[in-house]
Specification:
Elements (H helix, E strand, L loop, with lengths): L2 E4 L6 E6 L3 H11 L4 E6 L2 H11 L4 E5 L7 H10 L6 E5 L6 H8 L2 E5 L4 H13 L2 H17 L8
Parallel strand pairs: 2-3, 2-4, 4-5, 5-6
Antiparallel strand pairs: 1-3
Length: about 160
């Protein structure tokens, strides 16, 4: 599944998204939609690797970790091995130990835990695309605080 959405006639920021969940894809599209953005979506990591080779370079890559055919981390490692240095926003519903470290090792990458908030996606994407680590980490902190507030036994007041 490849979908391209663009409404700009000038310089367009190209964003590649890999996620097999239609609801998450819609949320990511909504968060990143802009007249200055062209979004190309694929369902899995294997398709992402192909897309990067065929249509790169991109200004931002957004990928889920748990995707069919090849997981998102493996897809990004493959891209990095091919000298793709595009910033990466990794989104996941997984809560594995060491995941933050694995994403950091990719270089130029940030992690957002699902459920994701549109504002956190926008902040992290903007930071990655402009090279502002502080803003990207703020987006991660917002997402982390949101996840903590949703844990059972925690008050959200």
């Amino acid at each position: 599944m490849r979908e391209v959405h663009s409404t700009n006639t000038g310089r367009v920021a190209k964003i590649a998204i890999a996620d097999d969940d239609p609801e998450t894809l819609q949320l990511l599209r909504e968060a990143l939609r802009s007249p200055a953005v062209e979004i190309t979506a694929v369902a899995g990591g294997g398709e992402l690797v192909e897309l990067l080779a065929e249509r790169g370079p991109f200004d931002l890559i957004v990928t889920d970790i748990d995707t069919p055919w090849m997981d998102g981390l493996s897809a990004i490692r493959s891209a990095r091995a091919a000298d793709v240095t595009t910033p990466v926003l990794v989104v996941t519903g997984l809560a594995r130990m060491g995941l933050q470290v694995a994403v950091a090792r990719l270089g130029n990458a940030r992690l957002l835990q699902k459920p994701i908030e549109i504002s956190a996606v926008r902040a992290a994407a903007a930071a990655l695309m402009t090279g502002s680590a502080d803003v990207a980490m703020a987006g991660v902190r917002v997402a982390s605080a949101f996840v903590r507030s949703r844990r059972p036994g925690r008050s959200s007041s």
